[in-house]
Amino acid sequence: GGLKMALGALPCMIERRSGHLIHISSFAVPTKQPRFTGYAASKSALDAAFQSIAGEVAHKGVYTTSVSMPLVETKMVVSKGHSYDHVTMLTIDQACEYVEHAIVTKQREVIDAPSRFLALLYFFWPSLIVALNSIVYRMEGEQPPDASEEDGAADRDGERPAAKRPRTTNAAGRKARTGRGLMSVLTWMMWFFSRLELVLA
Fold it and tell me: CA-CA distance, 57 to 150, in Å (whole number)?
């Protein structure tokens, strides 16, 4: 859909020798974030398309930009199966600043400094980023989504035996709280440096 719309708008831009296609991508693409498999795949596909289009239309006055947007405070990140309470997210206004920056500067990529650094690390040392993402994935808590709870209700009605949930020990609880605290510190630092980059740009 997004690519079809972009290709549909291109002829008019080329004719008037002026235009700018902006794709709202995701930080999940350069940082290889876990839990974003399908989302990152669709975003990176359109990123690649824009990168190819850029070479075809640059001499005709048309620009393309991919904005690697960090997490934003929207309904999209509200999930019963997973909580992002430990992550410092952008407000709607802050997310708009990223798009405004893309419009004004016409950069090929708008990406925050932490994401760019992680992408650079992945280029030289992919196994390190995979290991870091694995640690982050295991530190973030998960809960069963609504569908799983409905299955559990059906189990209680006698349709099939329900699996017993493991008990959370005090040690496991302390470990989870420590993990959340560490995640909060790391994400706050990433947010700080990303905001600093926008201010200095």
Answer: 52
Give the burial class of 35: count Cβ atoms within 10 A of its Cβ; 0-12 exposed, 13-18 middle, 19 or more buried. Answer: middle
b/e map of 174-183 (b: 16 or more CB within 10 Å)?
eeeeebbeeb
Contact 198, 101 (CB under 8 A): yes
> What is the distance between the alpha carbons of residues 19 and 59, in angstroms, rounded to a whole number?
12
Would you give the distance in Å from CA 55 to the centre of its chain? 26
Under DSSP, is residue 27 helix (H, G, I), strand (E, B) or coil?
Answer: coil
pLDDT in tens, 9-29: 999 999 999 999 999 999 989
Kindly report, residue by residue over 63-75, the tens digit of the pLDDT: 999 999 988 888 7
* Alpha-carbon gap, residue 18 to 30, rounded angstroms: 29
Name the pairing type of β-strands 109-111 and 19-26.
Answer: unpaired
7's enclosing H/E stretch is: helix 2-16
Give the residue among 50, 53, 97, 92 at the shortest CA–CA distance from 74: 92
The pTM of the full predicted model, rounded to 2 decimals, is 0.68
- Residue whose entry in the numeric block shows the structure tokens 């999209």: 76
Nearest to 114 by CA among 96, 92, 136, 93: 136
3-class secondary-structure state, position 132: helix
